[in-house]
Amino acid sequence: MVGGERLSKIMKKIKEIRLPGVPLKPSISIIIFILVSVSIFIFGGGVYDIMESPMSILPYPNQPIFYYQGMTDQTLTESLYFIFFLIIGFFGGFLSFRSTRYAYRPREARIFLLIGVAMLISAFIGCEALLMKKGV
Predict the structure, then answer these.
(1) How many CB atoms lie within 10 A of CB 54?
(2) Which distant-in-sequence residues (6+ apart) come within 8 Å of 75 by Cβ?
(3) What is the pTM assigned to this prediction?
(4) Short-list 125, 115, 126, CA closest to 93
(5) What is the dihedral of CA 78, 81, 82, 87, to 10 degrees?
(6) Rounded to the nearest 5 degrees, what angle is found at the Cα of 10, between the Cα atoms of 5 and 13?
(7) What whole-number distance in Å separates Cα of residue 111 and Cα of residue 46?
């Protein structure tokens, strides 16, 4: 019974072990960051890139082309450009939103708002330029 007693002591010590408290509910900031990241990935064509594994540059005799004509296909470079512009637009909107927190400091509020609007406008122009190059 020496082995049985030793086994029962080990089982008793295992039952006494308490794990540190791990929060089961993640913070709302992490959830929002994950949702925004996934939506930017999907809107930017990340699923298409994974499924089709497109070329990054189209070889042509005169010069390389970084985009397909039309809306049915896209290159990897084109997708990365679009994801980059989406990220700039998101941060521009976020900075514009953050400017409302500085109501009693109008200089900081104005700076955040101008930077945010400039980022939003540059993201919009960039996305439109990509679509115009595609011939849409």
Answers:
(1) 17
(2) 54, 55, 56, 57, 58, 66, 67, 68
(3) 0.75
(4) 115
(5) 160
(6) 125
(7) 33
Mean pLDDT: which of 53-57, 79-83, 119-123 is highest?
A: 119-123
Instruction: Give the start-to-end residue ranges of the domains of the chain.
Output: 28-133
pLDDT in tens, 90-135: 999 999 999 999 888 999 999 999 999 999 999 999 999 998 988 8
At 31, list the tokens.
């959830």
Query: 23: which residues sit within 8 A by CB, 6+ positions away?
Result: none
Nearest to 60 by CA among 49, 51, 70, 68: 68
CA atoms within 13 A on the CB side of 106: 0
Residue indicated by tokens 């390389």: 64
